[in-house]
Amino acid sequence: MTITIALTKGRIEKSxxxxxxxxxxxxxxxxxxxxxxxxxxxxxxxxxxxxxAPDVATYVRHGVxxxxxxxxxxxxxxxxxxxxxxxxNFGLCKFAxxxxxxxxxxxxxxKRIATxxxxxxxxxxxxxxxxxxxIAIQGSVEIAPVLGLADAIVDIVETGSTLVANGLVExxxxxxxxxxxxxxxxxxxxxxxxxxxxKKIESIVGRKEQAFDETFSRKTR
Length: 221
Ligand code: PRP
Fold this sequence. Notes:
Bound molecules: 1-O-pyrophosphono-5-O-phosphono-alpha-D-ribofuranose
Radius of gyration: 20 Å
CATH class of the largest domain: Alpha Beta
Largest sheet: 6 strands, mixed
Shape: elongated
């Protein structure tokens, strides 16, 4: 039986390929993939789909893919109906509120918040008891407060360099984000090889965490 895995194009692609290489796959096709979006392992036991981040959970939810690798940001933003089985501990970044230095978070006027993540932004301000106007945009969010489209943004911050390059500063951390392994519920029940594959990934991610912990404790000793 073939296991189908939906992979996210872009930001976490390289780390995903590194992980699957450690699992034992020859992922060299990813270097020379051209415009191809579906790949099969030579023994046809595995099939990989390369899709946009918001679509990974859709393929998994509909059972087209048994498993998916996607950022937690997408799982928070969209109600997914999939099982989140492992924190893969790469693709580390966070959601944050940022704006121009003159922004005043305590200001009592109704704020306009530009974001690619309307649900995350609405929930964050709702928790603080603030009703905000959400301005949904698709990218280059950082320019919105600079040009006066919004008072602030809710966006992903990884290195922070996009904020700096556009003269923005962080005002609030919202939550940590990392890549997750997700699974289709029926595949977990009916395909034992999917469970075996998850266990294999878990052992590799566990070893990585241990290596990280050891390095960290050496550094802090
Ligand atoms: C993301 C995010 C920020 C940037 C943060 O955008 O929306 O703009 O990366 O990364 P940094 O903290 O390392 O600078 P993405 O690259 O996905 O492009 P986009 O602006 O087109 O959405």
